[in-house]
Amino acid sequence: MRCDRFIRFGTLIPAIVFSAAAYGAAPWRTDAAAARADALKAGKPCVLILNSNTRALCGHIQSVEATLQPAQEIIALREKAVLAVSRKDDADAAGLRGEFGVVGLYTWIVVLDGKGETLASYMADSTGLPCAEESKAVFPGLVAQRISKALEEKASLQALERAWRANPADAEALDALAKRYLDCSRPRVFADLCEKELAHEKQDAPTRNRLRLYRFLAKTDPFYAFGGGDPERKPALRAEAESLLFEFPTHPKAVNVEAALFETYASSATFDVPGKIAAVAAKLRARAKDSADPAGVEQRAKALEERAALWKREAQTEAAKKDHDIFIDVRLGDAKRTLEQFGGDERSRAYYKELLDEARAKLEHGSESK
Predict the structure, then answer these.
(1) Do 98 and 50 contact (CB within 8 A), yes or no?
(2) Hey, which of 96, 121, 155, 284 would disulfide with 159, CB 3.0 to 4.6 Å?
(3) Cα separation, 139 vs 65, whole angstroms
């Protein structure tokens, strides 16, 4: 690293220029804290690759760091930002993981602006990487593209929050803040922010409604309970979603709530997803007469049914394939296949008891169909 002098706003101040010598043979620095401090001093963006020496979710990439290191696309990023890695056992690794909400020991990429504020923070695997033999070859380019895109952001997460707090009634400012928190894989932090703001009871009704909807959407984000197995979580989310759809059927965010509600069924080991959604739609219709907007509630119920019908057609296409996932049959409500697959050994019967009970009940009532 060498220091030159240059004139900014008529004042001579030191400018830190990061030469190749600062990096040695690697494309990045390994002293993350010092690199971050130097970038901040120079007013230059900084890219941190945390837990860099761990494997990717794709088994073809045994070490993210080793896969990225020789890539020219990564080396070229040094023209735009200071690059540094923190390996999982480094002295500062745990502190950095806590600061940026890193999930487990997955490799995480953090992009900071020249003020040290967060432009992006995400799991390295979330680059659209196809998991195949050629993954190692395309991974560096995808990582570099996403980092470059983050560096083009005009406002940091912190700046977006300041803008919203300056005018809490600004719906567009809250939308922008929510999007960035979720893009940065920090749904729990954002849900907590919504919770605290709602506790103050100082916002106008539209703002409170938006905060309630965003609090729910944050709780349905996959990173909110990543790796968690709370059996009460999804039933609670489903009940909250139904309540919000009844209360705000035509709100701009209602379609997001509807989609999140559907995913709590379609993305899990749920028996008979179409049947479950039909029951939710029927429940909404039964309550419509008590709603301030009965037509809106009917519209939401119909949209749920249309979403389920589209999903069912796609799932049936998959189910027709020879080696399809058995859980497609479960989600489609194929009682016989469910019992054949999970009703055998004692351990399976215990673990999938709820699925098996529902499958038996469907057969007993003579409503088996696929």
Answers:
(1) no
(2) 155
(3) 11
Residue 288: Cβ within 10 Å count:
19
Write the CB contacts of 266 (distance below 8 Å, at least 6 apart in sequence).
Answer: 273, 311, 331
Residue 199 CA to its chain's centroid (Å): 25
| Cα–Cα dist 220/261, whole Å | 8
DSSP state of 56: P
Closest residue by Cα to residue 111 from 151, 79, 155, 157: 151
* Strand-pair category, 2-8 with 11-17: antiparallel
Please state which of the ranges 224-228, 281-285, 351-355 shows the lowest mean pLDDT.
224-228
Six-digit token pair at 323? 């080696």
Paired sense of beta strands 82-86 and 46-50, if any? parallel
Q: Quote the CA–CA distance of 84 and 119 in Å, as a whole number.
A: 16
DSSP codes, 197-228: HHHHT-S-HHHHHHHHHHHHHHHHSTTTTTT-
- The 3-class secondary structure across 80-122, one letter per residue, is CCEEEEECCCCCCHHHHHHHHCCCCCCCEEEEECCCCCEEEEE
Domains in the chain with CATH codes: 2-151 (3.40.30.10), 157-320 (no CATH)
Q: CB neighbours (10 Å) of residue 187?
A: 24
Write a three-state SS string for 159-202.
Answer: HHHHHHHHCCCCHHHHHHHHHHHHHCCCHHHHHHHHHHHHHHCC
Question: Residue 148 and residue 156: Cα distance in Å, rounded?
Answer: 15
If one counts every other C-beta atom within 10 angstroms of the C-beta of residue 4, the result is 8
Of 82, 124, 118, give the one whose Cα is nearest residue 99.
118
Q: What is the pLDDT of residues 308-343, one digit of tens each?
A: 999 999 999 999 998 898 899 999 999 999 998 888
Other CB atoms closer than 10 Å to residue 294's CB: what's the count? 14
pTM given for the model? 0.83
Taking Cα atoms as reference points, which of 349, 313, 345 lies closest to residue 360?
Answer: 349
Report residue 103 CA to chain centroid gap: 11
